[in-house]
Design a protein that fits this description.
Layout lengths: L27 H19 L5 H24 L1 H35 L5 H5 L15 H32 L2 H15 L3 H15 L6 H25 L3 H9 L4 H12 L1 H16 L3 H6 L18 H11 L2 H32 L6
Helix pairs in contact: 1-2, 2-3, 3-14, 5-8, 5-11, 5-13, 6-8, 7-8, 8-11, 9-10, 11-14, 13-14
Length: 357
């Protein structure tokens, strides 16, 4: 008599992973973005809106709303909130980049019409503002000298002030310095120009010069250097300071050899931000430097040109030739700031402490 032997072992239980859930495919977000753009344009056209900026804002609103609703349906409300936060960040980034790219495109497209070797190597001497020709050499030379002098004045003072506030500053003096730095951060550029005009020109009797304009630019530059350097020094770990002091190294040498090299990248970036802040200023230059069509390589005597003032004067003329020169000078000004930033980045990377072996 045959008997069927059955395996009485229980069947293995099927494990259910409760952490896994449905997810949107990778192409979902780009598809939502394209659909939102089409929807924003359609709503804008249907509502009679003529501005493309309004269409873009509508598309951004539709994108955030559609991302939330679709993600909630597929992945749940918790993941939808995270997706909404990510969508808002991307939308903010796009809204910030579009004006920058638009400005760069317009400046480049209009500036290259005149920008050439002749334009960079000649001044406006003997050329009427309404005529074709002329160049920007005298203004470029004046801007380089004025910005260099302002940086030589402001950068050491701002750096030493930040070191005092972070490493030594305690009590009333530190609070007073912090207060006045905050006040100086918000002063208009015309106020700095009027201060130098009242003291250097009127009280001491000096005439217009590039140095007078550089002093006003230095006043505007110092609080930016102080604030940025102060924040960078605060990011240096205290353990580095304590290790250096534990070896018997004096505090001044610790700051010089440990703290500053560690923060040199951020300090350089802060100085470049301050340089970019002052390079395009027109009001102090208009008050103190006056501007000229001639080449003046002496910043300590006589009127001197600068790129911001040159752009203002040429655009104010209003003729086609003058406006073309203004756009070309604006492009030169942007290129000048970009070159300074690249050079500063290279110096910061060269001087930064090496982390590799």
């Amino acid at each position: 008599m045959s008997h069927t032997i059955q395996d009485e072992r229980p069947a293995p239980a099927v494990r259910v992973n409760h952490l896994s859930h449905a997810r949107l495919p990778r192409w979902a977000q780009p598809a939502i973005a394209v659909g939102s753009l089409a929807a924003g344009i359609g709503i804008g056209v249907g509502a009679g809106l003529q501005s493309r900026v309004q269409w873009g804002l509508l598309a951004a609103l539709v994108f955030v709303l559609a991302s939330y609703l679709i993600t909630t349906k597929v992945e749940g409300s918790r993941q939808a909130k995270d997706r909404v936060a990510t969508s808002v960040i991307w939308v903010s980034f796009v809204l910030a980049v579009i004006p920058l790219l638009s400005l760069a495109w317009v400046t480049i497209s209009k500036g290259v019409e005149v920008l050439d070797g002749y334009f960079l190597s000649h001044s406006m001497s003997g050329v009427l503002d309404a005529e074709m020709g002329g160049g920007v050499y005298h203004a470029l030379l004046g801007t380089i000298e004025q910005v260099l002098i302002a940086t030589v004045i402001a950068a050491p003072i701002g750096l030493l002030t930040a070191i005092y506030l972070v490493e030594y500053g305690r009590g009333r003096l530190a609070r007073a310095v912090t207060f006045f730095v905050d006040v100086m951060t918000g002063i208009p550029s015309i106020v700095a120009g009027l201060f130098v005009l009242a003291t250097w020109n009127l009280m001491l009797g000096f005439g217009p010069s590039g140095f007078a304009g550089a002093m006003a630019l230095a006043i505007l530059m110092m609080p930016v250097v102080v604030r940025s350097t102060e924040e960078m020094l605060k990011l240096v770990p205290n353990e580095l300071r304590e290790a250096s002091l534990a070896l018997g190294v004096p505090k001044w040498r610790t700051i010089l050899k440990v703290v500053l090299p560690t923060a040199i990248g951020g300090i350089t970036t802060g100085v470049m931000l301050a340089v970019a802040r002052i390079t395009g200023e027109t009001a102090p230059v208009l008050l103190l430097v006056f501007g000229t069509k001639l080449i003046n390589g002496n910043p300590f005597e006589g009127a001197q040109a600068s790129l911001p003032l040159y752009v203002y004067e040429q655009y104010a003329v209003g003729t086609d030739a003058a406006v073309a020169r203004a756009w070309a000078a604006a492009l030169v000004l942007i290129a000048f700031v970009m070159i300074l930033n690249l050079v500063a980045r290279g110096i910061a990377r060269w001087k930064a402490p090496k982390t590799g072996r």
